[in-house]
């Protein structure tokens, strides 16, 4: 088999990137169930067979499109009394700046693979961050789960279901409402 030329590799990388951009946008707009390989390929201006060539199937494409780094702040470097507010503000920034997490949330409601991906993100990113301020691993697991309940619940209400008044609430007001609960989950005794 001949090695791929530099130009071919660049085209291949560009095609993969175009597919991922189109997939993220389509999954965010339509959710996992309604998004189709054909629609994603059309958005990327390529043949659907190319999507299958690079990603194999819709589930694998979704997993690649849903690769997501929460870029959590170092909680132990923050003032203890500001953990809840800073974490809520950080998550609002992430929800509002990247359609991938939104697509993942929409899909996780109806698709087990997407739900597993969401669980994995919170287990591998949020739980370790919480462990930096809650040394007991069992306690940290409970507390990170409770933090996730607030963060994911607020995101579902605000961004997916768009339920008033939370959907239209000023960002600062939303932080004011959510931060004390997240703070309690992180720092208060049971």
Number of domains: 2
Quaternary form:
single chain
Report the strand count.
0
Give the termini distance in whole angstroms: 63 Å
Order of helices and strands: HHHHHHHHH
Radius of gyration: 19 Å
The structural class is: mainly alpha
Which band does the percent of strand residues land in? under 5%
Shape: elongated
Poorly predicted parts:
none
Number of helices: 9
The main pleated sheet reads as:
none
Q: If you average the pLDDT, what whole number results?
A: 90
Q: What percentage of residues falls in helices of 4 or more residues? A: over 70%
Explained architecture:
This protein is an all-alpha fold and 190 residues long. It folds into 2 domains: 6-65, Arc Repressor Mutant, subunit A (Orthogonal Bundle); 75-187, no CATH class. It has helices at 6-34, 37-44, 48-55, 58-65, 83-97, 99-110, 112-131, 137-160, 171-187. Helix 1 (6-34) crosses helix 2, helix 2 crosses helix 3 and helix 7 packs across helix 8 (137-160). The protein is elongated. It starts with 5 loop residues before the first helix and ends with a helix.
Structural descriptors:
Arc Repressor Mutant, subunit A, 190 residues, single chain, 74% helix, mainly alpha
Topology of helices and strands:
Blueprint: H1 6-34, H2 37-44, H3 48-55, H4 58-65, H5 83-97, H6 99-110, H7 112-131, H8 137-160, H9 171-187
Produce a short descriptive summary.
The protein is mainly α and 190 residues long. It contains 9 helices and no strands.
